[in-house]
Structures are given as C-alpha cells and as structure tokens.
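Data deposition worksheet. Section B asks for the primary sequence of the deposited chain exactly as it was used as input, without tags or linkers unless they were present during the calculation. Section C holds the resulting structure in token form. Section D is free text for depositor observations; keep each observation to a single sentence. Incomplete worksheets are returned to the depositor.
Section A, Depositor: J.P.
Section B:
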Amino acid sequence: MLDQNQTPLIDGIKACIARPHAAFYTPGHKRGRGIAQPLADLLGEAVFGADLTELANLDNLSAPQGVIQEAQRLAAAAFGAAQTWFLVNGSTCGVEAAIVATCRPGDKIILPRNVHSSAIAGLILSGAIPIFIHPEYDPVLDIAHSMTPEAVKAALQKHPDAKAVLTVYPTYYGVCGDLEAIAQITNQYNIPLLVDEAHGAHFTFHPELPTPALAAGADLTVQSIHKVLGAMTQASMLHIQGDRINAVRVSQALQLLQSTSPSYVLLASLDAARQQMALSGKQLMSRTLQLANEARERISQIPGLSVLQPPTQTPSPGFTALDNTRLTVTVSGLGLTGFAAEEILDEQLGVTAEFATLQHLTFIISLGNTTADIEQLVQGFTTLAETTPPAKALVNPRVNSNLEYFSEISPRDAFFADSETLSIEQARDGICAEIVCPYPPGIPLIMPGEVITKPAIEYLQHIQSSGGFITGCADTSLSTLKVLVIGH
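Section C:
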C-alpha cells in the first residue's frame, strides 16, 4: 500500500534547490536571480527557486519514470483511479485529450448540449461528430441540468456506432445526474464513459458529497484540482480505470496538447493537494460542508432570495444530487439581474461570486473559506435585500430554446472552412464559423457548424446589455460574427 504521507515531487524539487550548482538551463531567470524586482516583491523569492525545468532528477511529464510517476501513482490511489496523469494546462486539455484519445475523424460521440467550450475544442481537434442530447431543463430557474439515462439510451439506440459518451458531472451549479445509470448503459454498448468532473475533485473525500465519477462507473474523468481543492490555477488531473480506454492513446493525446515546458510549481501543487486530501480530506470537507450548509440555510431565509436546494426524495433523472459546497442564489425576486447583484456585492459589500447569470449568483465554498467569509457573504445578501428598492421580479428570456444543433456540418469542418465576417443582422440564418460563448460558465450558445438563429442572437444581446460578456468570437462586442462562405 502506498504511503500517502509522501510528496515525491516536492522532495525532488527541494533537493534540486538545495544542490549547489551553476545553472545553464531554462528558465532564463536562473532560480530567481534574474527576476524583475516588482515580481519578486509581489510573489517573494522562494517560488522562483522551485520554477525549474525537466532536469534529470525531476523526471519528464510526457514520459514519467521518476518523481512524477511516483506522484501520479499516489494520486491514482488517493482518487480511486487505475492510472492518473497530471495536467498543467487545466482541465481544458484533459477534456480535449479524452475526446482525441477515444474518437477519430468521423467517429460519433454522444454528449449534452451544455458542455464546456473545451469539449467543442475537442470535437474540432479530433474531427469527431457530435450527437447532442438536450439536458434536463428547469424552466423556472432557467438552468440546464444533466442529460438523463433515458436520453443516453435513446441516442445509443439511434447511433449504436458511437465511440464514446461524454457528460458533465457536476454542472457549474453543482448539479449531478444519474451517472451510475448512464454508466450501466454505456457498459452494455462497451464504449467508454468520459466525464468532465472539473468541479467534483472533492467528491472522493466525504460521504455526504455526491458519488465520485469513477465510483459511479466512469471510464475516464477529468478534475480541476485547483477549482475546489488546494492546487494552483491550471493544475488538474486526468484519471482512468478499466480496459475501455487505451492509456497509450491518452498519453499521446496529452503530448499533443500539453506544454513541453511544464511548470514544476503547478506540478508540486498537485502533489501537495493530493497529500493534503489523502491525509485530511474528510475533516476538511466536513468543515467545508458545515460552512456551506450554514450559508444556504441563512440566505434562504432572506426575503426576495431563494437558494438552489438538493433534490427531494423523488429526484429527477437529470438532478439526482447536489454538491452542497456549491451555492446558487436566485436574485431576480429583488428585481435585479445576477449581473447587477454581482456588481453591488463585489464593489460595495466586499463579496465576490464565482459567476453571475441573468437570474443567479453562484459561489464556490471550499476548504479555503472561513467562518468570517460566510458571515460576510450572509451580511452582504442581507444588506443587498434591505437596500434594494421594491420591484417586480425580473422575467428574463430563456436560454433553453436556443440550445439546438441545426447543422450537418461538423465543428471541425466548420472551423477550418472559408468564412467571412458579417454584421450581426446579416449573419442571422448563416452557419457559424466560431465559438460564441457567454462566460462564465463557458457553455457555448453557438458553435462552429450551427445555424445562427434569431433567438440565439436576441439572447446573446440580452446577456450583453444586462452586464454579461461574450467570449470565443473574434468580435466580443457582438457587432459582427464569422459565418461560413456559402459554396465552400
């Protein structure tokens, strides 16, 4: 049994820092001696000593045989995987690699329409053909949840030649669908179940959290260790189990997508975060859940506000569990958009949300939060409710009607096809040649290959006028869009 007290990567870096030698290798700042003073003042000097390259004693991320391999083995054991890869380019490259490793050009992959933009990038890179499923949708909250097992089964009956199924678990709102039932279906077809579990890295470490994707039967899962645990931004992991995923293909895909100059500061943070959770994860998550439950209970009692709650005793197939450390507050009852409420809370009340939508604010409560944070959060909402003039609840346009896939052109073909830039009015009914994505949460409303519909344009314009912003497209002002040139 592996000793989870160990930190092989951190120990290797410490040894390199301590060894007297003249450095004639990258990075150019030579262990901090060449760093500009303003940056040294900001970060301190110690971090630059650890900013090393793939030296002989520090292993190679693309072909690990030493301290990185040891650290990844410890992570696999801690997270319940057969094999784990460290990611320094975020979960984005993990999701892309998952698709590239399982799908070749022309292969079909089944996935929900509310996937992250990284999955669309994976379709473009791999040439896979998406078979989109509508996720379960809450029309009252205007929130798309998870795709249902029934929808997955129907899609596989219609497309039995599909090579993989990809799902999001949990969603950005912390909603989990019936992943175990979906896994049973993919098992029947003997195809891999890929899971974007970017926001669920903590599930392994407490019984009151939703079932981890691997325990639910996933073949591959990608987790952002930095989003909810103690790693640094961009530091993520990819895990596999079983024999449906070719590990060599995963390694090859990651070699295409990851930097050949990985940050050892990020890698060390993965080693440390794994050790922290393996040794103290349950205790840390118990405290985090206690803070989150207190915030949920107190904010739900404030007039004009409501909080996304765990499902009832008869949950729907697309919403079987909720990550209680994720707090979504509906503010439209105050007559405010989520964007307006976010601005007031941030600029006037010292409370900063993870993201805002037209109706909601969502907050990530993690092991780094304190009792004082929760008090400030609750007081912020109390003040917001008390100082907002009485107003009718806002009724915003719904996004669900826009989540259609009107095209026979693959995202890859559309991305590489000849395109032209047209005014937003002229672009209507054309075939989109770029990703158009309200951010966060980073779910593309229009993607390459889709028809640009009037409802989609109106929704994007409403998001923008309400204080949100658009990413992915060349013209983020949304005055123009790139469309395919007809006849090419």
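Section D:
The radius of gyration is 23 Å.
The chain has 17 helices and 19 strands.
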